[in-house]
Amino acid sequence: MSYHLGIDTSNYTTSVAIYDDITNTVISRKKLLPVKAGEKGIRQSDAVFHHTVQLPQLINDLVNEFNCEISSVGVSIKPCNEEGSYMPCFLSGISVAEAVSSFMHIPLYKFSHQDGHIAAALYSADKLELIKEDFFAFHISGGTSQVLKVTPYDKYFRTEIISDSLDLKAGQAIDRVGIMLGLQFPCGPEVEKLALNSKLPLRKEKVFRRDGMFSLSGVENKCKKMFEDGNTPEDIAFYCINYIRSALDDTVNEIISKHGNLPLIFSGGVMSNSIIRNDFMNRYDAYFAEPQYSSDNACGIAILSSICNKE
């Protein structure tokens, strides 16, 4: 058997995973970074500190459950594949991965955090074969709201940005609305719970677009107005989710018209939202990562390490 370790230290979560490429199974451990009540995020210096504390604990838990000889190690080294993409929080994972590689004399493979999200989504949707085909990947989270055209390249894939948010990222918009409603950051799951109790129907919201890009700043302003007017938290949460759904729906139709009708793969923490997921799966050739593979995780990094390690 061949086992591969994946490490991801994002701005939200410390995560590790082991992928068995014979049985196509993966086990993982992850832990959110602590954020003080009422705060909208975490400083990078604090993120590096907490990753440094949490990463050895998670690796120890993983090894105790799944003691095996590792064939390779993969790690996320930056948020995405754009030139200049960088966040200090990934340094924590890089240092551990390099130490493991050197000590065990095994290959080290480096990827972007976004690469890991795409691979985890393909694995979760039982669509890993798409790595050898063209498809659209939506990576919608607190750090990015990009749409990528993915094409085969070398042993896995290359990505090209074809749409993006002009301002706020989808996860940022949800978190800001959630904080306004008194929820704990990160707010996605709690905003979804509120939205599911709203009686408002899905409807098309008008979202500003320019040159294939979309704007999400309007949803924060509208939700503030709803809050001031005394609308219920449930309706405010639903409006926020439905606005983001409308922006993504416009984008789906535009990219299909421009680039062709390719499979749609959705990943990122926001894409674990059941309202958006159920609507799109009913109307498009769309595949979503299960919630545990859609939020930040190291599973995709471990899988990509396995792919790159094959002769």
Keywords summarizing the entry:
about 300 residues; alpha/beta; five-stranded mixed β-sheet; 10 helices; 12 strands; about 45% helix; about 25% strand; globular
Write the layout of secondary structure elements.
Blueprint: E1 3-9, E2 13-20, E3 25-32, H1 44-65, E4 70-78, H2 90-104, E5 108-112, H3 113-124, E6 135-140, E7 145-153, E8 156-163, H4 170-180, H5 188-196, E9 209-210, E10 213-214, H6 217-228, H7 233-259, E11 264-267, H8 274-283, E12 286-288, H9 291-294, H10 299-309
Parallel strand pairs: 1-4, 4-5, 6-11, 11-12
Antiparallel strand pairs: 1-2, 2-3, 6-7, 7-8, 9-10
Q: Quaternary status of these chains?
A: single chain
Any idea what the shape is? globular
How is the largest sheet built, in terms of strand order? 3-2-1-4-5
Count every beta strand, where a strand is a DSSP E run of 2 or more residues: 12
Report the major sheet: 5 strands, mixed
Written account of the structure:
It is a single chain. The chain is of the alpha/beta class and 311 residues long. It is 43% helix and 23% strand. It is built from 10 helices and 12 strands. The strands form 3 sheets. Strands 3-2-1-4-5 form a 5-stranded mixed sheet, with helices on both faces. A hairpin with a 4-residue loop joins strand 6 and strand 7 (145-153). Helix 1 (44-65) runs parallel beside helix 2, helix 3 crosses helix 10 and helix 5 packs across helix 7. It starts with a strand and ends with a helix.
